[in-house]
Design a protein that fits this description.
Blueprint (H helix, E strand, L loop, with lengths): L2 H9 L7 H15 L1 H10 L7 H14 L10 H12 L29
């Protein structure tokens, strides 16, 4: 089963837009842009202790440890760092570099000036 389907199955156990559901959304974003991460997530999400619900507990623990009064917040960058640690994913800088010019896959650059 593809990693996106695994994430969506785990998300289906949640009400939309809960913290665990949002973890799934962030993992899908990471998997889309990083094939290496998608491969690791594909294996990890088969393990109950590595579910999106368990990952959300790690993020909540971080938020609880960094509360200011009754307020807790975890930024997107902090969440990504926690998820990378939890799933053993490489840091963004360690991922394979994007193709030259930032073009993904086998896409071809088209010079629009050539049509004028």
């Amino acid at each position: 089963m593809p990693v996106m389907e695994k994430i969506e199955r785990q998300q289906a156990k949640e009400k939309g837009r809960t913290a665990a559901w949002m973890v799934g959304e962030q993992l899908k974003d990471m998997a889309r842009r990083e094939p290496e991460s998608a491969e690791l997530l594909d294996r990890d999400l088969d393990i109950p202790e590595m579910s999106i619900q368990q990952a959300e507990k790690k993020i909540k623990a971080y938020a609880d440890a960094h509360k200011t009064g009754n307020f807790a917040c975890v930024t997107g960058a902090e969440t990504e760092r926690i998820l990378r640690e939890f799933y053993g994913l490489a840091a963004r800088a360690e991922q394979s570099p994007a193709p030259a010019g930032g073009v993904e896959g086998n896409a071809e650059i088209i010079d629009l000036g050539a049509f004028l």
